[in-house]
Amino acid sequence: MTQHDHEQVDPAITEIWRQTLVDGHKDMPSSLLPGGSRCGMCQIPLSGFGGALMKTFRGRAASRKNPAMCNF
What we know:
Helix content: 25-40%
Shape: elongated
Oligomer: single chain
Distance between the termini: 23 Å
Order of helices and strands: HHH
Low-confidence stretches: none
Strand content: under 5%
């Protein structure tokens, strides 16, 4: 990682990113719902019946910038 002298990086943010990229952001109960396409990281359904439930009750849907990932 390149750091510049004028930038201060919060260690807590760095740890959150490290954990997410290494371990993924698992969402086990929701990943068991039926659905067509799924998030590449947490496996929640993004389409179908499970996708509709996730969008309605948890506000999670496909990302605008990468439809293969959720907006978490």
